[in-house]
């Protein structure tokens, strides 16, 4: 019996919809809907969904307002979880009277009365009492969206009369006549181009180039320590360059019509011109020829380099190219340095000319420099001095990590080939890069290095102990130091491999260790009778593919300091080697002829 009493359970039953809420997935909720937040029925005012998290659920942020108290509630729930939604029913009652104790007498739909609703406090209650005294419909809380007109009055779909409505009578003539819309006419504004044209545009373009050139000179003086006379020299060169151009432009514009003043035509414009008459074609060609006389942005760097040449500064074009590559001197995207007031007045073609984005081509700068030298020689008979060979040679030797003992060999090779490193006025279009003075200088350094420090493993013994080639360069260590850039000082055991060229980069302690080890060097082995001398088995490289590991690294570093392609340097060195071979052959023939005479 006890067991039966224990399992005697009563179950309550209810009809469908008896619950105050029903579940729904959170992602199915919508704004202006209803939901239960913190056990309160709320109307959703804001709703936002976040991205899927690491657990694979998206969070839904809900903001709701209590439908009874007006308080705001917030909740955060995964989108896949269920939330309770309240059953919200709306009923309307007709107000019959207001009792003295502050309760409303309402009538239900079935005709029975409801007297348990108190008059709301505040502004709503006062408005209800006022409208009831005036015998007007309160219609508070009516949300009807449809209206109709009856007997000149406007009613909602629930029978509430709308105040402030007046019906107007239409004439028979205005039957099915739509209203007339009047629009205010806008003033037609003529498009006025801000950019200058023709002669004024070219003058502004020259001023922009002059500003860029001044910024470049200012950087060289303040950052690189150039003297103040450098700016004066470059300014005079620019005056001479721009003076010729402006004089020619003034002559051309004095004989042209306004319609013939076009320049820097694009490809599409050229194609359109070819379809037109022959007169337009000739005008386009003439304008293109006139534009070729204008200076380019590249000429600013060339003028700075010519100023360095006149001051005899030991700076090469390769160093200028490296400044441009490292974005130190103003050249790439130079239009950013132009003030906005000047930039907006430049035509698009000139803005493109000042907004260079491609890397600087070293050979283009060399050619432009030679063109300017020919320009100044032709118009003003200016002759530029040769390069400052001693200092510039020492600078290249140091940058390439070579021993200074090769300098006498460079002087001898220079005298043999009769090279004076002078900037001559020659046509750069037909001039081979090997005739550029700085390329010639580096080529002689490469040849002198190959003669005294060959890249192969063949042992060559000099004729005397005082020969500069006695000091051997280990290319493996050179490659590690100059190419890989891993050396920060002398490591333990590296004093034995110390060379004269390493002294410039050593600290005080490292120099002391090097000198200490030098005193303990053992004497060399005896030299046999049949030995190979320095310069024998000299190997020439005609193509890049022929370079071995150390030779390719050495050539590549030398080309990078010049700012020219590796292929160009290989060809220049090869041509000078051919000239040296021809000189050697001539010397041998003369010696053989003298022997036959005796």
TrEMBL record:
Matches recorded under InterPro entries: IF5A-like, IF5A-like_N, IF5A_C, NA-bd_OB-fold, Rib_uL2_dom2, Rrn7_cyclin_C, Rrn7_cyclin_N, Trans_elong_IF5A_hypusine_site
Residue span, Translation initiation factor 5A C-terminal domain: 87-145
Pfam families linked to this entry: eIF-5a, IF5A-like_N, Rrn7_cyclin_C, Rrn7_cyclin_N
Signal peptide boundaries: none
Listed GO biological process terms: positive regulation of translational elongation; positive regulation of translational termination
Subcellular location: Cytoplasm
Major location (coarse): cytoplasm
Keyword line: Cytoplasm, Elongation factor, Hypusine, Initiation factor, Protein biosynthesis, RNA-binding
Annotated GO CC locations: cytoplasm
Keyword Lipoprotein: no
Coiled coil: none
Single GO MF annotation: translation initiation factor activity
Protein family per UniProt: Belongs to the eIF-5A family.
NCBIfam families tied to this protein: eIF_5A
Protein's UniProt name: RNA polymerase I-specific transcription initiation factor rrn7
Lineage: Eukaryota, Fungi, Dikarya, Ascomycota, Pezizomycotina
